[in-house]
Amino acid sequence: MLAKVSKNIFLYASQNKALNTVAKxxxxxxxxxxxxxxxxxxxxxxxVQRLNEKGLLCTLDHxxxxxxxxxxxxxxxxxxxxxxxxxxxxxxxxxxxVKMTQLGLDIDRDFCVQNMHRILDTAKYHNNFVRIDxxxxxxxxxxxxxxxxxxxxYTNVGTVIxxxxxxxxxxxxxxxxxxxxxxxxxxxxSSKVAYQEKEKVDENYMRIIEEHLLSGSYTAIATHDHHxxxxxxxxxxxxxxxxxxxxxxxxxxxxxxMQVSLVQEGYKTRVYIPFGDDWFGYFMRRLAERPxxxxxxxxxxxxx
Length: 304
Ligand code: FDA
Description:
With 304 residues, this protein is an alpha/beta fold. The chain has one domain: TIM Barrel (Alpha-Beta Barrel). It has helices at residues 2-15, 17-26, 41-53, 70-90, 109-125, 140-151, 168-174, 198-214, 226-238, 256-264, 280-289, 294-303, and strands at 57-62, 94-98, 130-132, 157-162, 180-183, 219-222, 246-251, 269-275. It has an 8-stranded parallel β-barrel, surrounded by 7 helices. The chain is globular. Dihydroflavine-adenine dinucleotide is lined by residues 133-134, 160, 162, 183-187, 222-225, 249-251, 254-255, 272, 289-290. The site of dihydroflavine-adenine dinucleotide has 21 residues, from strand 4 and strand 7.
């Protein structure tokens, strides 16, 4: 009951534009620095370097919420191309993750696609890869349509499929050959489109992981769930799937010891690193997802 109330409070805070705007002026607070790698690209690149030294690969995500003007979307596009340039200049091992609503998807589809072209051209020039994060259900079909369109020109782009959606298995079949990040799914979705019970989500998650791996496609398994990770290890061993065909992914600041031990066991492991001054919404969503994360916030609150 208490967990549900706190979840709703954090989700409400994450969606509150005024709070998000005020938080931009604060700098990272309340322990957010444990899950957000700084407010600028320099600090994010430093974290990439530090993680690379431990054998971890990275993906950078420039945080941005409530993009409702072309100006904001263009600014986000430039931030993303600059991030790709900074990765190349520093010679670190990281690709890029983007959200298309940040690039103007809700403003004008064609404008958003143009912005994606700018980012993908820069990525191609630097021989890098861009992952389109999957947002809520209302953006799912349009994201997949744009991805398929972009794949006609670029091979350095992939997306994410959410196991809680009934449609996930069919989507994975249709996207055979395309690099996919597979996740359980982070948004609150209706029972008309998504499984609501954890067991069913987990079951579907393993189903789509197995489907994509067996089709020979490159698969990123993005989870902190050690039960799933252990099942994946067994599955790849049993089916003689090469370790070059998949990677594990986890969020920055989560299960850091497990991230390193996966590398030590010889598994490719990538850390998703969010950065930027628009950190508040992301931080609130992480607190909503897992009440235990509140200890981050409390620790940060007392330390600052
Ligand atoms: P889940 O939260 O179901 O936890 C299962 C079990 O794992 C827990 O009961 C606990 O035992 C253990 N566990 C989990 N977290 C732990 C922790 N911090 N410490 C100790 N034990 C822990 N979603 C989306 O909709 N679109 C997207 O594009 C992405 N992208 C993305 C990238 C990356 C790299 C990750 C890791 C995740 C995403 N997600 C996402 C989020 C994803 O959909 C999902 O909401 C979260 O990862 C939470 O689900 P998990 O699979 O991690 O385990």
